[in-house]
Amino acid sequence: MRVPRGADAPVRTLFVLALLCACLIPASAELQITVTVDPALPVPNLMQNAEFETGDERKPEAWGASTSLPRGGSFARLIEGGRSGAFIRVESFTSQTNAYLSQVAPVEQDTLYRAGAWVRLRGGTMVMWMHWWVDEKRFDERAYLHSWGSAPIVPDFVRLEWTDSPSPDEWQWVGREFSTWKGQHHVNMHLGAYFDRSSMDIDGAFLGLARTTLTVEVTGGEIARVRVVSDAGNEVWDSGELAAGTTAVRHELPDLPTDARYRIIATQPDGTEVAAWYPEEQ
Amino acid sequence: MLALALTVAGAQEQADVYDLQRRVEWLATQAGAGVEPLTPVIREGTKLEPVTLVAEAGAEDRAWQPGESVWREQGGTLVVRDARQRREPAIALHHSFSFTNEGDQTRLLDVIFPWKPQLRDARWWDGRHERAPAEPEFEVAGMSFRLPMSTALGYDRVVTWTPRPSPGVALALDPDCLLSTWTTGASGEEFVGALSFRTRIVLDPGQTVGVPLVVFTFPHEDGFRGAVQRYYELFPERFSVAEGTRPSLIGGGGYLFSRKLTRELQWEEARRFGMGWEWAYCPAQTPGDWYADERFYDPEKGYSGDVDRHRNTVPGSLEDYRRDLRERFQRGWWRTNIAYYMLPHAADLSVLEQFPDGVMVRKSGEPSGISVGWIKPDAQTRMTHPWANSYGQEVLREIEQIAQDYEVAAIGFDEANMDGPHYGAGIDGDPARAWDDEGRVYCAMQVALARLGEHIHQQTVRGYTMATVMNKPTSYPTATRADVGMYEWPIWEQTDGIEELRLLMGHKPMSWWKPPLPEKILAWETMSPNEIRAGVAGIYDYIRLMSLRWGAFPMNMQVWDVEESVKLMPVLSEMLREGWQAAPQFTADKRLWTARYGQGVRSFFVLANPTRESVPAQIRPRSTSLGSVSPDWHDTLFCAYDGSERTRERDERESSVIPLPDLGPHEYAILRAAVELAGAKGLTGSALMALDGLSEGTLDAAWTAAKAFEGTITARIPDRATPLTMVVAGEEREFEPLDGAVRWTGALPAEGSLRVTWRPEVSVEAAREQIAGFPFVGEGDALATIVLPADPTDRDRYVAEHLSIYFDYWQRRQEQPFGQVSMLSDVEPGPRLPVVETASAEIGPRIVFAQAIRPTVQIDGQTLVIAGPDDAAREAAMLRLLELLDARYPHAGAFPEHPMYQKAGMVGRTLEAAIRNPGGTNP
């Protein structure tokens, strides 16, 4: 599963006054592209020790590690071989148990977040489970990834490649967006094996705001056209052909996914393009 | 020198141990020597205050000796007794512990029974897992999937040059006793010090509660499975199908989804797919009102009508409802045990308004929550404790009413794994009560379900014991009261719990219970047709091999459409009638799955290859060893399941081996024990059986022993066959007929031969070609007429009717090869043979019934005779006739229309037809 790319944001023309970050990117002698983003990207990751870089050989710091059945699974923190550095290996030995890493994170109420983790799944069912009790009601959001790799029929009766299973050697993103409830100030993230005999590696847990507002300003010369394109190649905004003599463009794009990078492309009347990425680095 | 002396002494002992009595004495000495008496350690209340016991006479006796010990609480009112008894044939000592409260206050007791085996370097098995010794702690789900036994396997304490494996020892609960909580433990760091069993009991003033335990040994070579095998032998009633149940129960299960219009076709569908029982899901209109009556039945709400489904869709009166249920169960009786669905641990609120004390009460004192839409879409249910309160008593009555009115052969409990402590009504004085860490008294739901299972077994329907089919009986109380245990998980995904449920069920059949949906497993859109067929074949291969390994019938939905799976059903029936065994007692290549069914000369050995490569299939039967009262497989000659010859040889190490052809990927082999020669060792020989004779069968065997011997020769014959002759070493002998065998004792030569002949259960006095060529039907019309016997019984009428629809069913299935039985009512009927009371001169070819000494099928010109001494025998003859006709009128189902099957050229065909002819369309 890949990081979900946001749908094309609705196009509105607004003049946003709150500025948290301003980037002045001199792209040519004439045209200058300025991008302000609220919240800035990348958004903060609300999970502590999200990359599992600290901890002991069994458990990452700031995380819990437990199974619902005694001796139902195991955890190991390996310091090399992750998507970046350390990672956690989670095994569950029976379908009668779960095996979860867990951490409670603070959140704002009535806010859209995205959460997930990178998983290398050899077999079984991986779940990202976000839950909390809010006014005695259960908040519950989940995302799953399943592999037939641990199934007893694989590989001697059914080859893994004959099933709809992720590659056991590749990292997959397991996550989703969700909105917190009114009055909710925390969420408990659980990552791991969901009642299936499972074997998986987990790295790069994430919880952060799901949307940002990006404001583009182009100045410094005559502008024929301005486009904003995401790193997935999706067209986010296209000004179309601007009136001759246009020398300043300011446009606000709200509700953009925060898990993307955006390329702002300004075209001069002679066809010359000036472009800039936000964020600059991946 | 000491080690040498000990080794020599050991060797001498080994030579003597083939004598059973000496074995018992040796084991008693080894197992019991120096052991302290099994003295319970008692603590009381939530603070676990120690209770000091003072021994009276007998308590200091050796733990291994029969007798009685009595202890009294020092300064208190508790009396503990241990009545010890040795029961043969197993090497075991039964401890009937009882606890009596002679005071006037209720006592909450935590009891640990520690027992220290005389073993060195012993590993521990906790009843489910082998693990490092651990204290007996009560754990979440600790009783689930677990046998109530604590087991050790190690070596003699006597030091020898090489460690000498000792018989294992186990401490186990008598499964007749129901407990709400228990656990096992073992002291020690790496190896076992003492085994323990722990429980909690509640003693009211004046009450006595029993906790019967047993200590026993088992052969080291069998591993911990040997302990389980021995446990079955000690309590055979709990690990075998209840006495008096219909033999047909041991068959496949499933849903036939029939209706009144297709009831007779339902019989034939069940027969074709080897089914012995059906799961009649929720005939009740309202959960909790299991035998519906005027108090709860709502004519407006609807019921299923005359169709076998569980939705309330057809308006009708209570009499309409009962009429249709009677038809369903009574008319459907003939071919399968239709299991009437109950989930007695849940009931609708409308029922609980009349039986409020049945609601399960939680620790908090609150009733269990309300589930909406479970069991029936419009139901609102709470969990219940169906025992000893008014609801529980009503359930008992309704079980009896169901038996009497609907004449159901079995009752099915859904979700029999559900458990939970009940703190409410119905538990007063219950000997199975326990108490929690806060000192609150409760009784487990599993106890109530087990007791209901016992009540079901007390019902008799049409002369048979009513059977229990339980879905997921995952603890010993329910598993030991279930005749069939369903495993409602996809075995191709979830295997944990399979071995555990199998061990809990003993010899009894299991049933896999999940429709295989290959289209949901395979990424068929991106696969080639060949790959799809291979993937589908792999799934069904797996199901078959797992069935053989674990003694489980695939449900009918796992059998349809695959010829090899259909063929396997009668094989599984035959083997499971003998009973699955925990200890295979033979070894083979470690890559192979192994299983054993039956005992002695009625055994089967199973080997299955779950790999993608060919594996050598030579087997080594285990020899008798210390702690064994099992057959010495060295005395036994085997043939293949189909009777083909197999030899027993000795390898370069002088060990017995039975060489078999290599097993290819996903192949299996079954060996049938044929001849047992007790009294000689190190035999070689061969055996073969001719099993497919229509009117006679034969067994031929030859052996070579080291020398002539006085011994007993036992030869297997098929079930219900009549033995004719037994020729031993060229001389015809007067044999002793046994159940499925014949026996003779006398002087046997070193090299000898054996021939046994028998008449099969049904003697067919016609050639197969005559049977196939008899003019039953022609050009789509019925040609023959069935003539009932004089004064036909209900079973005679059924026999006639089933035969009459055979061709009709087959014809409809050629038109509509897949789909449920009820759909066949929309298919153009095939020819039905008319059934008449008396024969007239005008009828042509005829099938008549006759009295005869034994079941027989004969053809005399245009008359086919189905004969037997009674109606059951005539039914057997009819079924044999149909079996022979199946060769000409085959049907194994067909894959339905689904894009995956279309892509792979499998629609309307069996798997094998699609593989044989990938581009074709023939069935």
Query: How many strands, which pairing sense, and closed or not: the largest β-sheet of chain B?
Result: 9 strands, antiparallel
Helical run tally of chain B = 18
Assembly state (oligomeric):
heterodimer
Q: Most extensive interface: pair and counts?
A: A-B, 22 and 29 residues
Structural class of chain A: mainly beta
Q: Beta fraction of the residues of chain A?
A: over 45%
Q: What low-confidence regions of chain B span 5 or more consecutive residues with pLDDT below 50?
A: 1-20
The main sheet of chain A comes to: 9 strands, antiparallel
CATH architectural name of the largest domain in chain B: Distorted Sandwich
Description:
- Chain A is mainly β.
- Chain A folds into 2 domains: 22-43 and 211-278, Immunoglobulin-like (Sandwich), CATH 2.60.40.1930; 64-209, Jelly Rolls (Sandwich).
- In chain A, 0% of the residues lie in helices and 50% in strands.
- Chain A contains no helices and 17 strands.
- Chain A has strands spanning 22-26, 32-38, 64-67, 73-78, 87-92, 98-106, 112-134, 137-147, 172-179, 186-194, 198-209, 211-219, 225-230, 235-238, 249-257, 262-267, 273-278.
- The model of chain A is unreliable at 1-22 and 25-29 (pLDDT under 50).
- Chain B folds into 4 domains: 2-234, Distorted Sandwich (Beta-galactosidase, Chain A, domain 5), CATH 2.70.98; 275-482, no CATH class; 584-761, no CATH class; 765-892, Chitobiase, domain 2, CATH 3.30.379.
- Chain B is built from 18 helices and 54 strands.
- Chain B starts with a helix and ends in a 7-residue tail after the last helix.
- In chain B, 52% of the residues are buried.
- Chain A binds chain B through residues 68-71, 93-96, 148, 151-153, 155-159, 162-164, 196-197, and chain B through 129, 131, 139-141, 144, 489, 491-497, 521-523, 527, 531, 535, 538-539, 541-542, 610-612, 665-666.
